[in-house]
Specification:
two-stranded antiparallel ribbon
């Protein structure tokens, strides 16, 4: 079970790193840099995802992957403590 939790933790970490790297920073989105970011039309991001824009979807994915990483880390620590104690 510990090995499964470790694999889950590593996969969540990799996905989290990639999700954070693809997100647009504030300076890229035009908040403080004076330039418009990628996919920005009239101050709003264009969307092919329907109700939610691409950036909002990426934010939600990042949040859920971060929660999964934290839960996997906590469960891994609990499993290690029970094995050794």
């Amino acid at each position: 079970m510990v090995v499964f939790l470790q694999i889950l933790q590593v996969l969540a970490a990799i996905i989290l790193i990639v999700a954070i790297m693809v997100q647009t920073t504030k300076s890229e989105s035009g908040a403080g840099g004076g330039s418009m970011g990628w996919g920005v039309i009239g101050g709003k991001s264009s969307s092919s995802f329907g109700k939610w824009g691409a950036e909002e979807q990426l934010n939600r994915i990042t949040t859920w992957v971060a929660v999964a990483f934290m839960v996997a880390s906590l469960l891994t620590a609990i499993a290690y403590s029970r094995m050794s104690g």
